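Inverse folding, one chain.
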């Protein structure tokens, strides 16, 4: 398994040497192949799109999922750029919009709230390339040690990242925030009902973490939403640092989770093919409700 992982990483390294336009074309071709062969993930994506965007015709939903797989494959191939390309090359390819320096100026700790668009790792790189505040991040440890080590090196290669796994206690991360780190927080996935509640997501109850609201409230954090996008062809990526929310968190964590989901819905409608539709967002169901993913 480790040999296969090392060969995969070697291929990713080689691909990062190619011009981005060529990588994009390879990604589109790989995406068409993945759409044809990855039956399980294709069914999950189609189910999610049908649940969340029922106003689209069946043909339009299928077309959206086909396009999604092409962006998904691009995001996988372009991981090599994020992990291995020079700082100067990444700074040319990542287009930053908005107030990326808020965390540097803020006297209060900052939480970057980042939905799971396919360029979410580009947003993570931008927080280390274009500002100087330390960044703490929570990630899911990989079962393969070689890939896990590569992920940690890649995400922390610019020397500002403190990485914490979801399997460990939150206390080390909280201490890092109290010492001055900003918190990069992609919190829109289904992690079960631990510290979560069922709140609407496109009209369906979705297990949604309450921790972002509670953490922001307990540490008096400024919450700044960030959205990352893959641009067509060889143009690179765009990362938008939006205006911080002035009335979030409130004293109602469940209402805050619902508002967060409503905002993410708006962002998805603006960029539907690049949201992470292959994730089983509705995997956890309310008691007595049938599963959405047979």
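Residues assigned per position:
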């Amino acid at each position: 398994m480790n040999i296969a992982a090392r060969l995969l990483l070697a291929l990713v390294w080689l691909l990062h040497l190619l011009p981005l336009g060529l990588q994009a074309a390879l990604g589109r071709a790989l995406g068409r192949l993945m759409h044809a062969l990855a039956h399980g993930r294709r069914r999950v994506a189609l189910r999610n799109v049908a649940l969340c965007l029922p106003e689209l015709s069946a043909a339009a939903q299928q077309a959206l999922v086909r396009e999604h797989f092409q962006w998904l494959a691009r995001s996988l191939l372009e991981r090599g750029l994020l992990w291995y390309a020079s700082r100067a090359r990444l700074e040319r390819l990542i287009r930053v919009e908005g107030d990326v320096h808020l965390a540097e100026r803020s006297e209060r700790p900052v939480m970057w709230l980042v939905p799971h668009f396919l360029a979410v790792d580009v947003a993570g790189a931008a927080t280390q390339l274009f500002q100087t505040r330390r960044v703490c991040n929570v990630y899911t440890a990989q079962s393969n040690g070689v890939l896990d080590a590569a992920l940690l090196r890649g995400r922390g290669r610019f020397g500002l990242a403190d990485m914490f796994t979801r399997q460990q206690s939150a206390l080390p991360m909280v201490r890092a925030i109290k010492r001055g780190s900003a918190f990069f927080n992609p919190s829109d996935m289904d992690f079960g009902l631990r510290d979560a509640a069922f709140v609407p997501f496109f009209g369906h109850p979705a297990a949604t973490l309450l921790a972002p609201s509670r953490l922001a409230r307990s540490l008096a954090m400024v919450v700044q939403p960030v959205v990352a996008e893959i641009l067509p062809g060889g143009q690179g990526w765009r990362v938008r640092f939006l205006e911080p929310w002035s009335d979030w968190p409130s004293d109602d964590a469940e209402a805050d989770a619902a508002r967060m989901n409503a905002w993410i819905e708006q962002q998805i409608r603006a960029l539907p093919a690049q949201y992470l539709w292959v994730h089983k967002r509705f995997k956890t169901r309310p008691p007595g409700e049938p599963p959405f993913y047979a």
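Residues 58-77 form the longest helix (20 residues). The beta strands are 94-98, 110-113, 135-139, 161-165, 182-185, 196-201, 204-209, 222-230, 237-241.
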